[in-house]
Amino acid sequence: MEHTRLESELFDVGRRLHAALPAATRNPLKAADDKAMELASQDAELKAALFRFVDVVPACRSLDDLARHLTGFLGEVETPPPPVAVAMKMGNTRAGRTALGAAAAAGVKHMAHRFIVGESPRAALGTLRELWKDGVATSVDLLGEATVTQAEAQRYAARCTEALETVAAAARDWPERPALERDSAGVLPRANLSVKVSALTPLLRPDAPDRGKRDAADRLRGLLHRTRDLGAHLHIDMESLDSRDAVLELVLELLAEEEFRAGPSAGMVLQAYLRDSPQTLDTVLDWAAGAGAGRAHPLTVRLVKGAYWDHEVVEAAQHGWSAPVFEVKADSDRNFERLTQRLLDARPALRVAIASHNLRSIAHAIAYDRLSGGMGADLELQVLRGLGDPLQHAIVAQGLRVRTYCPVGDLVAGMAYLVRRLLENTSNESFLAEQAKGVPLEQLLAPPAVAAGR
Ligand SMILES: Cc1cc2nc3c(=O)[nH]c(=O)nc-3n(C[C@H](O)[C@H](O)[C@H](O)COP(=O)(O)OP(=O)(O)OC[C@H]3O[C@@H](n4cnc5c(N)ncnc54)[C@H](O)[C@@H]3O)c2cc1C
Asked: Which amino acid residue places its CA nearest to atom 21 of ligand 1?
C-alpha cells in the first residue's frame, strides 16, 4: 500500500476522532482528580514515593497507619512541592495524621474507582449495560493475579465461572446492537471475560514451564467448556515475558482440541514491545493455518504494546541480559503498526482487536483497514476503562466497534493493576501524557520515526 496515501487517510481519521472527543476531556489527564498524576509526572522521586505508598495502602490497618506511611515515603523526597510539604507538616500530630490519612485513602479510592467498575460482577452489571446501550462492548477482568496457592487458583477459577454466568444471564436482556454483535465471521458474544493464566495456577515458573502449563490447563479447560455452553467469549491476557511461551502454547494447544472446534469464541494477546513479537505472530499464523484451521470462531488476537515494560527492563538488567523489549518508544510504536497491518492482512483466519489509547496507533489501524477495502466491521478497537473513556465515545461516533476492558474487584486486589496504570500514565513517553501536556495534534499523529525526535 502506498505510504503517502496511508498517512493522508490516517491524518483524516485522526482529525475526525480528535474532533469527536468531548471538549472537556480532550486532555483526559487534566481532569480535577488527576492532580496527583500530574504532580507525580513532573518529579521522578515523588513518583517513586507515591508508587511505594500505593503499594502499601491495602496493608494499612488504620488511617493513622496510612498517614504514617504517606509522610514516611514523602519524607524521602528531597525538595517536596508545596502541597506535599503541607501534608508532611500535618503528619506531625496525631489529629493531623488522621485527617491526612483519610484524605489519602479517599484519594486512592477515588483514583481506583476511575479504573475499576465494581467490587463484583453483579455490582458491575449496571455499568456494563450502560456502556452497551451507548454502543460500547465490554470485557470483564477479575482483579487479582499471580496466585501462590492451589486454593487461590481454585477460587479465581470459581470467580471466573460465576462472572461468566452472571454477565451472560444479564446480557440476554440488553437491547440489540447489531454493530457489536456480528462481523463477517459470524456472531460476536455479548458476554466477554478476560483471564490471567498466572491466577489459574501457582506453578507458572519460567524454570519449569510444563508443570505450570499442566496445572493451568485443567482450570482453563473447565472455563472454556463453561464459556462455550454459555455462548460467551474467553480472552487470555498476556503477562510478563517469563510466562509468555507457556501461555501461548497452552492456549494454542487447548483451542486445537477436537472438543473446542465448535466453540467457544476465544482470544489471546500479542505484545508489540517485545522484539521477537513478529516471530510470535508467525507462530500464531502457522497455527491458524494448521492445527487451528476450521474452528467455528476464528481466534481473536488483541494487539497491545505491553504493560510490563519497566519490569522487563529491570529483570533483564539484573541478569545481565539484553532487554527483550524495545528501549526506544518509537520502535514499539512502529512495530505496533507493522503488526497491525500483518494482522489485518491475515483476516479471515483471525479476528483482530487493536488495543491502544494512542490516537495515531488507532487511526493507523482504521486507515489501513479502509484502504484495504474493509468497512470497519472486521476490526475491533479496544480501550481500558478510566483511560479510554473519551476515546471510546469518539470511536462509536465513527460507527466503529469498540470494546472497553473493565476490571472488577476490590481495592486490595486492584493495587497491582492501579500501579501499572499509574506507571504508564506518568511516563514522559506515554501518549496520554503528551496529549495532556498539550502537544499539537499534528505532532501527536506524526509517524513514530519523527516522533522519536521530540
Ligand atoms: C483493552 C486492553 C487490553 C490490554 N491487555 C493487555 C495484556 O493482556 N497484556 C499487556 O501486557 N498489556 C495489556 N494492555 C496494556 C497495553 O499493553 C499498554 O500498556 C497500554 O495500552 C498503553 O499503550 P498505548 O498504546 O495505549 O499508549 P502509548 O503511550 O502509545 O504507549 C505506551 C507503551 O509504549 C511502550 N513503551 C513505553 N516506553 C517505552 C520505551 N522507552 N521503549 C519502548 N517501548 C516503550 C510500553 O509498552 C507502554 O505501555 C491492554 C490495553 C488495552 C487497551
From this structure: 356
Q: Is any ligand 1 atom within 6 A of the Cβ of residue 327?
A: yes
Task: Report which secondary-structure segment, H or E, holds 44.
Answer: helix 44-56
Measured CA to CA, the distance from residue 451 to residue 454 in angstroms comes to 6
Q: What is the DSSP string of 150-212?
A: HHHHHHHHHHHHHHHHHHHHHHTTSPP-HHHHEETTEE--S-EEEE-GGGT-TT--TTSHHHH
Q: Are 145 and 196 in contact (CB under 8 A)?
A: yes
> For ligand 1, what atom is nearest to the CA of residue 269?
8
Q: Does 54 or 362 have the greater pLDDT score?
A: 362
Mean pLDDT computed over every residue of the chain: 88
Tell me the per-residue pLDDT of 325-340, one tens digit each, with 9 for 90 and over.
999 999 999 999 999 9
Phi, psi at 184, each rounded to 5°: -75, -10
Q: Residue 386: is its pLDDT beyond 70?
A: yes
- Ligand 1 in reach of 383 Cβ (< 6 A): yes
Each residue's pLDDT tens digit, 255-265: 999 999 999 99
* pLDDT of 26 higher than 70: no
The minimum-distance atom of ligand 1 relative to the CA of 194 is: 8
- Model pTM score: 0.90
Residue 355 alpha carbon, nearest atom of ligand 1? 53
Which residue's CA is the closest to the ligand 1 atom numbered 39?
329
CA of 244 to the centre of ligand 1 (A): 16
336, 274 Cβ separation under 8 angstroms: no
Do residues 407 and 144 make contact, with C-beta atoms less than 8 angstroms apart? no
Mutate to test the pocket of ligand 1, among 280, 305, 403, 429 (most ligand atoms within 8 A of CB): 305
Do 256 and 287 contact (CB within 8 A), yes or no? yes
Distance CA 198, CA 225 (A): 20
For residue 433, the model assigns a pLDDT of 84
**Residue nearest atom 25 of ligand 1, based on CA coordinates:** 356
From the CA of 71, how far away is ligand 1's center (Å)?
31
For ligand 1, the distance from its centroid to the CA atom of residue 307, given in whole angstroms, is 5
DSSP-derived letter for residue 321 is P
Establish whether residue 357 lines the binding site of ligand 1, counting it when its CB lies within 6 angstroms of any ligand atom.
Answer: yes
State mean pLDDT over 367-384.
96
Residue scoring higher pLDDT (366 or 428): 366
Half-sphere exposure of 366 (CA within 13 A, CB side): 28
226 lines ligand 1 (CB under 6 A): no
